């Protein structure tokens, strides 16, 4: 069945009418959403007049420089910028400090550390994990101001 010019024109007018209706209702919905949002919003001027809310903050990041703590592990000096971490490391037994130093600072593998101490890789992994747990507990103790110490 062939489309006549009149039918094509009818389809074009129908589509144009549909598009105009969709656009009109989309505009109405947008206007309603915006008016609902305006009813719920509060002006910043109103907030600052009623109660003083500072609209900016100051950054004290660079004002208080870190204190540098030096720790000697495995005959080498390590400088740390966190005093609590340095104190917690010093509270650990010497062997645990050496394992942490070799693994995190010298980047030895678990297998290499195990060979140094005559143990297998899995035992060294367990010791690293256990030492990190002890370090975490020691840092919690130091942050709460207690003088309790943990050891293996």
Secondary-structure topology with pairs:
Layout: H1 5-40, H2 44-50, E1 69-73, E2 76-80, H3 83-91, H4 94-105, H5 110-117, H6 121-144
Antiparallel strand pairs: 1-2
Strand order of the largest sheet: 1-2
- For the secondary structure, the number of strands is 2
pLDDT averaged residue by residue = 83
User: Which structural class do the helices and strands define?
Assistant: mainly alpha
First-residue to last-residue Cα separation: 91 Å
Biggest β-sheet description? 2 strands, antiparallel
Shape: elongated
What's the number of domains? 2
Strand content: 5-15%
Number of helices: 6
Cα Rg:
35 Å
Q: Outline the low-pLDDT stretches.
A: 147-152
CATH class of the largest domain: Mainly Alpha
What is shown here, in short?
With 152 residues, the chain is mostly helical. The protein folds into two domains: 5-50; 69-144, Winged helix-like DNA-binding domain superfamily/Winged helix DNA-binding domain (Arc Repressor Mutant, subunit A, Orthogonal Bundle). The protein has six helices and two strands.
What are the key terms here?
disordered C terminus; two-stranded antiparallel sheet; single chain; 2 domains; 152 residues; mainly alpha; 6 helices; Arc Repressor Mutant, subunit A
